[in-house]
# Entry
Amino acid sequence: MKIIKKIAVALLLILVAMQFYRPEKNTAQGNHTAIFLTETNPPQEVKLILKNNCYDCHSSKTRYPWYNNIAPISYWLANHIKHGKEELNFSEWEGYSNKKKDHKLEEVVEVIEEGAMPLNEYTWTHSDAKLTENQKQLIIEWAKQSRVLYQLNQQPQ
# Structure
């Protein structure tokens, strides 16, 4: 029983210490998606869907929930955001080549069609982020139109 007590105390101390060493937050200032929005020119409804469902993990500005202040949840969220930005970062759209932009939009279509995005872990706490069939179609149509223009090596108008 003594060993279990020692392990429990050690785990508690580690958990308390984690509260003081938090991961860096993803909180850029300014209009970090302006270039992406200008180039791809999504309809207003798609803009809202992207803002509410995608930007938290795929841009340089995250709206953090209150529970992000509790470790180890803060580390878990930071890892999800880091991975999401590695896959697609709307805030760094300007730095992508036209070929990469086309590929990223192709991936958007794929993950929406497969139902892989938004992640279930995200929609558990953001129930309004679940995409309706109509919202999925809007995103897919917009992404496909934008892809055609990138494939022609033009910026969407």
Q: What stands out?
A: The chain has one domain: 2-151. DSSP finds eight helices and no strands in the chain. The longest helix spans residues 133-151.
